[in-house]
Design goal:
CATH superfamily of the largest domain: TolB, C-terminal domain
Strand order of the largest sheet: 3-2-1-24
Number of strands: 24
Radius of gyration: 34 Å
Shape: globular
Length: 345
Amino acid sequence: MKYQLILSLTIIVLLTTSCASSPEEVTAQTSVAATTSAANWTRTPTPTATYTATPTITFTPTHTPTLTPLPTATLLGGWTTENIICASDLGTGNLEIFSVSVDGNHRINLTNSPAYEFSPILSPDKAKIAFVSRNGSNPEIYVMNVDGSNPTNVSNTGGFDYWHNWSPDGSKIVFASQDEEYDFDIYVVDVGGGNLTNLTNSPFMEQFPIWSPDGTKIAFASLREGRYYKIHVMNVDGSNNLQLTSGRGGDFPIAWSPDGEKILFSSDRDGEDFELYIMNADGTDPRKLTKNTIDEADSQWSPDGTKIFAWPFEGEPFIINSDGSDFGDLEGLPGSISISVNFCP
């Protein structure tokens, strides 16, 4: 018998295949140990290796990530190379406020919460961000530092609060709030949340307020005249309410020019898509700036008033001269621009 060749020695499993007459013998030699008796041997199982997992490393942040602006440089129209503040659900599952460069390579989540947050607007000194947060049934206006710290509910009306805008000195916020009867009114509140005041207090739908650069007037859209929203202007205390636009189609104010002489607005008065228009601050001389198949929504003047940055609901952002000429995209701009828009690129 081939197993009788194995005498009273413990075989250390290092034999070559030449010591066996068959593959089965090699297997037996490398998997068992013989006892000193050839007739009575027992299998000693190969010890089972024990795997000890490397301990999981838990990362505990030592501080809240802060926004680091790109090096400041002046671009055309007076814009500077700072990050865009916008809303996105990319990688989060719900809308959050981000700081993002125009090329999309630099992105920081500033809110990082389970609520839905959108419509961010930078304060005039770019130190704070006002935005809408909806964590439950009612959206409210919040203010936080530009690095995302210290978010504070400043509206807290119990209604649906939207369409906010900063006062030129950054001390107050104007916004629209819907009550239980589904009417919207224009409110103003201190940036810290005090002195909440209803400026319109009417049974009509009044929304989209924007503050004039000199801080004396507020333009807004109203349904007082019936079917279509029209642009009105009033003093900051709600007095002297005047209608600026009329006719067919809806008109919605977007931004005052830096010198306060003109108002940029969106309208479908031509029966087509919403386009960008410009008019004098008293409502005279309305002129159409764009003609395309996309709806322009988020748009802002350059600081020197010569150009307008437009961010459509769909499509790529573009820059246009304030007289409607020289329509172009952002290609070739070095870095990003200091604006806030609703949705990220």
